Every structure is written in C-alpha cells, then in structure tokens.
Amino acid sequence: MSPNKYFPIRYIPFGLCVIGTTLSYTVLDDQPKAGRFLLLFGFLTLVGIYDLLQTKTSILRNYPVIGHLRFMLEFIRPEIRQYFIEGDNDEAPFSKEQRTLVYSRAKAVPDEIPFGTTLDVMAPGYQWINQSLAPTHLPSHDFRIEIGSKDCKQQYSASIFNISAMSFGSLSANAILALNLGAKKGGFAHDTGEGSISKYHRIHGGDLIWEIGSGYFGCRNSDGSFNAEKYTQNALDPQVKMIELKLSQGAKPGHGGILPGSKVTAEIAAARGVKEGEVCISPAFHNAFSTPLELLYFLKKLRDLADGKPVGFKFCVGHPWEWFGIVKAMLETGVYPDFIVVDGSEGGTGASPVEFTNHVGTPLQEGLRLVHNTLMGVNLRDQIKIGCAGKIISAFDMAVAFALGADWCNSARGFMFSIGCIQAQTCNTGNCPTGVTTQNALRQKALVVSNKAERVYNFHNETLRTLKELVEAAGLNHPGEIDAPHIIRRINQHEVRLLSTLLPEMPAGLLLEAEHIDPSLNLPKVFELYWRRSQAQSFKILPI
To answer: Rounded to whole angstroms, what are the CA distances from 480 to 45, 143, 337?
Structure first.
C-alpha cells in the first residue's frame, strides 16, 4: 500500500494551512499577534477547501492551495508557462497555440485573436485556403456521412469529427465517462481503443466504435486467439455502431505493446478478458489471418457476426505493396471493408520508443493520399469511406485532411486537452496532475465528469462551427467538397503550389486498365514500382 494513499504529499501545504489555522486560534488569547497568522492561514485554509469542492479545475482539486501558483505564474510570465508549467518543450507533441485553441473552444469562449496571424506566412510549408467572392450560407454545422458498403445492413450516420482510439487503462475511468457523455450529448462517436468496452463506456450510452487489436481484448480465448462468441455478445450491443480492426497505430506501428501485470486492475482485466495482475500483451501481428485474402475474409466474418454493422480496419501505412495486396484481395473476393481509418505516424497518444515515435510509419499526408488514390484507381472509392487521425486539432487541419481524401476525422489529443490534459507527460507514472491518464482513484476524482463532458461537447461543437465558416467562406456546401485545388502551400519565399499539383489525384479506374503508369500524370512512383508486384495471396512482394 502506498504511504501516500490517504494523505498524498501534494496535500501537505493545505494540511499545514489547516494546522497553522488551528494553532493560531489556540494561542490567540495569550498571543494577540497570532491574529495575523490566523487571518493568513485561515484564508489559505478557506482557499484550499474551495479548491477541493469546486468542479471546474482539476489542477486545483488535486493540488489545493499550491495549484494557484501555476495560474499566478501563467498570468505573470507566459514564458514560464511555456517551459515549466505546461511541459511545452522540444519533445512536446503540440504547441501552446494548439492547446490554447482547444481550451478556448472547450470552454466555449471566443478564440478570435487581434493583430493578424501569429504564423510566418512566408515560411515553407505554410498553407491556406482561398475564399470566394460568392460565399455560401449553410443552415447547420452538424455535418454527417453514411458509413456502410454494399454488404452492410446497418449503415451508420456518423459525425465527420469523432473521438479517436484511447483505451480504458490508458485513460482513467472518469476520463472515459466524460468523453462518452460529451459524445452522447453532441451526437458523435467515441472509439474505445483496443482495450475493449469497459463498464465506463456503457454508463452514458454514447455511440461507440469498438476497436479490436491483435490482443482481441473483449473477444479472446485464454491463449489470445479470437473468440467468436464473445465477439458477438459485444458486437450486437446497440451502443456499438461500428467495429474497427486495428492493424497498426500511428504511435508505434509494427511494435505491439505490453501492459505490466501491476497495472492490470480488476476493472481493466474485466474489460479486456484477461486475468487480474497478469501481464497483458498486444502482439505486433494478428493470429487470425496472415495474408490479404485472409484479412478480407476475417472482416467479412466480423460483419456477419455483427448482423451487418459497418466493419473496417485502421492502419498506419507501411510497405505500400502490402496495402496494394489488400486492395487486390478486395478485387479478387468482392469483399470490401465499409471504412478504412488512416493513422498518421505523427499522431498517437500511446507511449512508445522514441525511434518508433519519430521514424517509423508513413505520415498522415502521404498515407491518406496513397489510400485515397489507390481506391480511386480501382473504382472502389465510392464503396469505402476513409477516416483519418494524426495531430488533427483545428477546423483547418480537418479541411486539409478532406482535401487529401478523408471523409471524416478523428482526434485523440484534442479531446484529451478538452478534458484537462496539460501535456505534463507523466502518463506512464500514474501521477497525472489532472486525472486524465491515471488509475489512482484519488487523482482521477479531480476530473469532474459533468463539467468535462460539457467541454468535450463544446470542443466538438465549436470546431465544427468554425469548419462551417471555412466551408462557407470558400463558397462550398459541405466539407466533403473541399478538394486538393482549394489548398495552397508555400514552397519557398518566392513559390507557392496548389496541393493538387504537389499531390495529384489518381484518375478513376487507371490501375485496372494501365499496364504502366503514365509519367506525365505526375503520380507517385510508388504505383509504378509496386502495384504490379503486389499480390492478394501474400503480404510479400513479387520479384521483379
């Protein structure tokens, strides 16, 4: 048992204030000067009591009295906030501006800024969308799409902005409750992550995308293999709207993961279908299939057992010939996933070795465009919806993703920010200061579900409201109309290019007709190098 379980060290300053108040009051009759200390300690004690009882700020609930130092320093010295208070260092995955954007929208306060852009518009990589002289006016920002291919019997009307995969166990119970309640109120989906469906996902009844990873948590046998009966029990739950098979993730593609036995609590064990206290392993590969054809038949099995609910897969693009082999398997079998989620290597909230974080997997831009172009080239793009994730925070991030071929966007860290994450980067220690990524019961109580659920709803709502304004300014009627020619990127100080010039679109059906890719189309060499050498029977590449 932890020595700090009942009175954690972070409560010592508040405790000293209480002791100081008591002692000052006790000696007040004999020591009149003690009145000054009584006023001081009494005031701080009242502050601490308020901090513990208020429901808006997790930091103050977990750090009564001393938590105010953070906000004092933030007010006096923004630089201190940047380098010490919020952990915004060279390794922090998101900037201060991005977090501020989310915090503002989560609190439903105006996020407009005066005096022009804070970005360097002359810097290489700067992007923008041009406005129209004939802007449109849209009645609603509740943009939705229908997900479900020809074999789907229960199409899902999904929001174009949803909560990306984050498991219970990685996130606290209160974090899961807040995310799902916010999703319920806003009418958007909550991806469970590969940790399966916990009791906390079910309490509020928000729409779920059930993610199944290589550990088959929630539908596994004791040896780690797939269990169809357990799968069916969860898949037929009306709250589960779609099933997503995770092939890989942006944080650590091809790596797998291990949850130490010390972290496998009774609740986590129950959700995942493993034994409490035993090491929980997610292998780097699936044992239910080993070829593209077997993958497609497994997806068909999942759809049939789920009574025709939308079934798809998520992956961070790796070897292109493996992806091409999956597409060829679709053509050979006539079995299509209802959706594909492309995870960019730059995203991911899961912890992983720095080499995997920085240098393994394809970034979202290239991966998303490759998947879109391949499906265009085999005339399957209208059958399969494409979702994406990877550092998507703002409405403009979404606009760029739509221009590259996405039908909807997922965000993980953005919604984590909305429930209070300050990027302290202590997720693996169990000492999260805001109660978002800890299983410590006392720490996670600082996260008040009703308050943070409202912020989840606000972040989703305000982001889509801003996206609506972008779409209107561009003279369009739906985010799905944003295309690569709408986005312009600066190459250097003297040159800009349309995104459609840098990343051209594959002509429909070209891969079905052409023996060789016409170089004049300016398509990536990857199609010329690997399309003909990929195969549906194996993930291996054919020799030249």
So the answer is: 55, 9, 20
